[in-house]
């Protein structure tokens, strides 16, 4: 809905893009009344559409996206007035802990839906003041920038002979951002005092746990999970990008994931010391020295990829996580229909494939397809359960009666049975494809050859 007019939204996509991407001279001028732009009908409507598309979990108030429409009809005009007079107080973000690929946990801070809408509205207005000056080698959370571009840029540098990587690991970056430092960087472009005060309130809103009722003060950090966090992180780390550019270094950055490329290890060690000092002293951030390294780029992990033998390859940790997720999605004891199980698996495979299969991994996709199909056959075998059901199902799928009986009465478990001739005839590659199972090999070919 349009939060200002209580009518259904009518967001023109070209108009919305112009709000975010306009790089004309107007954004080089000082504007002391940005709050009016933030709260304009068009901008709020566009922000709500963005939040609604992204869906997401409820915040600390437990209000869902679906419930927000009715809430906004009753309360938006009052909230808008509070934003204008400076009395609005954002809700604390809800703490959610998610596992990290390399162990441990990472905290997400989920804002309430109303605060997601307001944050998105702010981001849409202030982003054009910063975006044109960001480095072309900053790829995270930016219009027309993707992780694949960052990976391809690194690969291009490697081909030019920059085969030594300086990996700088920022320790808990989003938790360690200095509020004063960040606000200082934002204020260089944003002069609207009311908007700056509101940004400060969002930084200090705090973190809450719904289950325990505990509230934690925010004295530093920018919780991941809100629409403003990616932009604010890029604003702060842009100073690092400018430092690296000034020194004519080859680098790529995606949010807080940074890789610098040089030609020799001795040069890399010098750069590591200098950049680490810059990060800790100038930006007041922490560097995890135990995870930072200087060495061959083949030993680096960047955005889930590594670079070996002149090729982009999927990092072994990313593959390990992929297989664990596939095992979970093909759990034989899941208790849902095979149609739904294949649908959920295919959704995951498409998302994973379109991200990771920019890598030189044709043979890997062939091997993974074979492994995935075997796990799906195991699921069918387990669901059929009784020998009579197995025989009937195999015959229905074209297996001869004699072979179906031999397979159906076997004492072999699902793993060994999935390799037998009868099951591979019944549940062949074409049949599984007809049930919706996607092929990683096909995704790889489409990415690399467009068919």
Automatic annotation (TrEMBL):
Enzyme Commission number, as recorded: 2.7.7.49
GO biological process: defense response to virus
Stretch list, region Disordered: 1-20
Catalytic activity as recorded in UniProt: DNA(n) + a 2'-deoxyribonucleoside 5'-triphosphate = DNA(n+1) + diphosphate
Gene3D superfamilies named in the record: 3.30.70.270
GO-annotated molecular function: metal ion binding; RNA binding; RNA-directed DNA polymerase activity
Occurrences of domain Reverse transcriptase (ranges): 79-307
Residue ranges the record marks as coiled coil: none
Assigned keywords, A-Z: Antiviral defense, Magnesium, Metal-binding, Nucleotidyltransferase, RNA-directed DNA polymerase, Transferase
PROSITE patterns: RT_POL
One Pfam family linked to the record: RVT_1
Matches recorded under NCBIfam families: group_II_RT_mat
Family per record: Belongs to the bacterial reverse transcriptase family.
Protein name as catalogued: RNA-directed DNA polymerase
Organism: Escherichia coli
């Amino acid at each position: 809905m349009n939060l200002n007019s209580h009518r259904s939204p009518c967001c023109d996509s070209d108009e919305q893009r112009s709000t975010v991407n306009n790089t004309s001279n107007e954004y080089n001028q000082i504007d002391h009344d940005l709050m009016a732009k933030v709260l304009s009908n068009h901008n709020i409507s566009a922000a709500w559409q963005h939040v609604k598309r992204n869906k997401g979990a409820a915040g600390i108030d437990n209000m869902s996206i679906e419930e927000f429409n009715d809430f906004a009809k009753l309360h938006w005009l009052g909230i808008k007035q509070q934003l204008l007079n400076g009395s609005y107080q954002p809700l604390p973000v809800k703490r959610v802990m998610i596992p990290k690929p390399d162990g441990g946990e990472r905290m997400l801070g989920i804002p309430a839906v109303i605060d997601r809408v307001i944050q998105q509205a702010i981001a849409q207005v202030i982003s054009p003041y910063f975006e044109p000056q960001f480095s072309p080698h900053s790829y995270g959370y930016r219009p027309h920038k993707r992780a694949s571009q960052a990976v391809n840029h690194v690969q291009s540098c490697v081909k030019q002979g920059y085969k030594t990587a300086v990996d700088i690991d920022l320790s808990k970056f989003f938790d360690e951002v200095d509020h004063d430092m960040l606000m200082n960087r934002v204020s260089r472009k944003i002069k609207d005092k009311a908007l700056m005060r509101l940004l400060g309130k969002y930084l200090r809103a705090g973190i809450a746990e719904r289950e325990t009722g505990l509230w934690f003060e925010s004295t530093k950090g920018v919780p991941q999970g809100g629409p403003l966090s990616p932009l604010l992180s890029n604003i702060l780390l842009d100073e690092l990008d400018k430092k690296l550019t000034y020194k004519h270094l080859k680098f790529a950055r995606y949010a807080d994931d940074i890789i610098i490329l040089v030609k020799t290890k001795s040069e890399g060690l010098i750069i590591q010391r200098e950049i680490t000092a810059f990060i800790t002293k100038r930006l007041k951030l922490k560097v995890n020295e135990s995870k930072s390294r200087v060495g061959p780029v083949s030993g680096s992990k960047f955005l889930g990829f590594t670079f070996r033998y002149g090729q982009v390859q999927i990092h072994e940790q990313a593959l390990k996580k992929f297989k664990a997720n596939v095992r979970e999605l093909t759990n034989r004891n899941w208790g849902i229909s095979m149609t739904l199980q294949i649908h959920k698996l295919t959704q995951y495979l498409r998302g994973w494939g379109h991200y990771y299969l920019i890598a030189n991994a044709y043979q890997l996709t062939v091997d993974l397809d074979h492994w995935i199909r075997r796990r799906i056959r195991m699921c069918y075998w387990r669901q059929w359960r009784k020998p009579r059901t197995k025989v009937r199902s195999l015959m229905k799928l074209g297996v001869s009666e004699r072979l179906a009986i031999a397979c159906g009465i076997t004492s072999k478990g699902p793993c060994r049975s999935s390799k037998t001739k009868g099951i591979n005839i019944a549940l062949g590659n074409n049949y599984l494809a007809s049930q919706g199972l996607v092929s990683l090999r096909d995704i790889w070919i489409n990415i690399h050859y467009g068919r």
